[in-house]
Design brief:
mainly beta, 279 residues
C-alpha cells in the first residue's frame, strides 16, 4: 500500500524516460504505482531494485516519490519556517520542492514570513498533505519525565480556561495550568519548565516558576522593580484584587503577598492603607 506522508521502501516496476515507477512489492498491484522522477533515481538503479522514498503530492496534486527526506513526516511534530503567506494560508518550508500549506483554519496565531511554527501533518478532504498547528492530538503521553524534572518545550496554544499548552521535546503533551500562567507567555515561546505533576494519562503539568523559597526571592525583586517603575509608590497593596496583581505583576495573590512580606521583613518597603512605598 502506498502511504502518503511517510517514508517506505518500494520496488522498481519499470524504467521510463522521465523516471521509474515504483510499487509496493508485498501488495504486488502494478496498477497502484508511483513515479520517482529521473533526477531522483539513484545511479545504476534497475528494475527489481528496492528504494526508500517519501510520498507526497506534486504541484498538480499527483502522487509523487522523492528520495529526499522532508523535515516533517506523518506522526511527527516539528517546527517549520514560514516561507510565504497567501490567501490560502501560510506555506512552510519542509525541505521539498513544493512548500507545505498550513491553512488559516489550522493556525493558532497570526503568522508572517520567517516565523517558526510547531506543526503536524494531516491529510485533508482532497487527499492532500497539509500542516496543522493544532497539535494536541498528535502529541504522545507517557514521557520519561517525573516530578521536579526540568524540561524544554514550545507553547503551541493558549487557553483562557486551561492555561498554556506545551509540546515537550516536540513530542510529549504538557500544560502550564492557569494558576501557573505568567502574563508574558505567548504561542511560539520556547520555555524551560519544571514538572509539577504527572497525570494518570501520562500528560505533564508544568511550571516555569521555581520552588517557593527561590521563587519568593525572584518575585520580591520583580515587586521592587515594579514599585520603582511607579516612582517608588505602588498604587495598591497586598489586599488588592487578584486580577490587578496578576495583570501588573504576572503572579498570583499568594505569591505577591509572600514577596511583599519578604520585602517588609527586610525593611525595603512600607505598606499603607492603599499603597506600597519604597523606603
Amino acid at each position: 500500500m502506498l502511504k502518503l506522508g511517510e517514508k517506505q521502501t518500494l520496488q522498481i516496476l519499470k524504467k521510463v524516460d522521465f523516471g521509474v515507477y515504483l510499487i509496493d512489492e508485498e501488495e504486488g498491484n502494478e496498477e497502484e504505482r508511483v513515479l520517482l522522477p529521473m533526477k531522483q533515481v539513484p545511479a545504476g538503479a534497475k528494475t527489481g531494485d528496492r528504494i526508500t522514498v517519501f510520498l507526497y503530492k506534486d504541484s498538480k496534486d499527483r502522487l509523487i516519490a522523492t528520495t529526499s527526506t522532508p523535515l516533517l513526516q506523518m506522526g511527527e511534530v516539528k517546527e517549520l519556517e514560514v516561507a510565504q503567506i497567501t490567501k490560502m494560508g501560510a506555506f512552510l518550508n519542509w525541505g521539498l520542492e513544493k512548500d507545505l500549506l498550513l491553512p488559516f483554519r489550522e493556525q493558532t496565531r497570526s503568522l508572517k514570513e520567517g516565523d517558526k511554527c510547531l506543526v503536524a501533518l494531516y491529510i485533508d478532504k482532497s487527499e492532500r498533505l497539509c500542516a496543522t498547528a493544532k497539535v494536541y492530538h498528535h502529541l504522545k503521553t507517557g514521557s520519561p519525565y517525573k516530578r521536579e524534572d526540568k524540561v524544554e518545550g514550545v507553547i503551541y496554544e493558549i487557553s483562557k480556561n486551561f492555561g498554556a499548552f506545551v509540546a515537550v521535546d516536540g513530542e510529549y503533551s504538557a500544560l502550564i495550568p492557569k494558576k501557573e500562567f505568567v502574563k508574558d507567555l505567548k504561542v511560539g515561546d520556547k520555555i524551560t519548565a519544571r514538572v509539577i505533576a504527572v497525570k494518570e494519562d501520562g500528560k505533564l503539568d508544568l511550571s516555569i516558576r521555581e520552588k517557593i523559597p527561590q521563587q519568593m526571592l525572584l518575585d520580591a525583586q520583580t515587586v521592587l522593580e515594579v514599585i520603582e517603575s511607579f516612582d517608588g509608590a505602588l498604587p495598591f497593596n497586598d489586599k488588592a484584587n487578584p486580577e490587578v496583581i496578576r495583570r501588573e505583576m504576572g503572579m498570583s495573590k499568594n505569591e505577591f503577598k509572600r514577596a511583599v512580606g519578604h520585602l517588609l521583613k527586610s525593611g525595603k518597603i512600607q505598606i499603607t492603607e492603599k499603597s506600597i512605598l519604597l523606603k
